[in-house]
Design a protein that fits this description.
Number of strands: 9
Number of helices: 3
Strand order of the largest sheet: 3-4-8-7-6-5
Largest sheet: 6 strands, antiparallel
Strand content: 15-25%
Distance between the termini: 38 Å
């Protein structure tokens, strides 16, 4: 229980750190010279503000974090796919969602992962040192929206915990 509380409290610190910049984000064009993909969603800041709610804009475009245990998808048990709220790219399957107890929806891998190969997924990993210690930020490969972070304390077999903001996602239930 104390471990879960510490995780939640660490998350609260993120609420105070808007405007972080990801460095060395593979394929993003932000800080790397060997981009493997180009952003296909190049809206202006004003366009993003018109398209998104204020909370969606803060989290996805300014790298904010929603409060723990507040997200609409935290306890979602429906079968389906989680898409990027900004560009509708498929990101995570409900089959890989689990309850980590941290206060954010958690996934063991991104949709399209083949073993350890994430080249066919809709996400990119970016080094985030904004809080003084290295963490791995998760962004949408299509539009570079900030989604959350990935940590190496998830369940087997991947050992990963993709800790994703609900407000950065749009859930589409599977058709019966």
């Amino acid at each position: 229980m104390a471990r879960l509380l510490r995780r939640a409290l660490r998350g609260l610190l993120l609420l105070e750190a808007p405007g972080r910049l990801a460095r060395g984000c593979a394929g993003s064009g932000r800080g790397d010279t060997g981009s493997v993909t180009k952003s296909k969603c190049s809206l202006s800041e004003a366009d993003w503000q018109r398209k998104l709610t204020p909370e969606q804009f803060y989290v996805t475009r300014e790298k904010g974090t929603e409060a723990p245990f507040s997200g609409m998808y935290l306890n979602n048990k429906e079968t389906g796919m989680y898409h990027c709220v900004c560009c509708d790219s498929p990101l995570f399957s409900s089959e890989k969602k689990y309850c980590s107890g941290t206060g954010w929806p958690s996934f063991s891998e991104a949709h399209g992962t083949k073993g350890s190969d994430e080249s066919h997924t809709g996400i990119l990993r970016c080094l985030d040192t904004s809080l003084g210690c290295p963490r791995m930020e998760v962004v949408c490969k299509q539009c570079e929206a900030h989604l959350g972070h990935v940590f190496p304390d998830g369940p087997e077999p991947t050992g990963q915990r993709f800790c994703i903001n609900s407000v950065a996602l749009k859930f589409k239930p599977s058709k019966p």
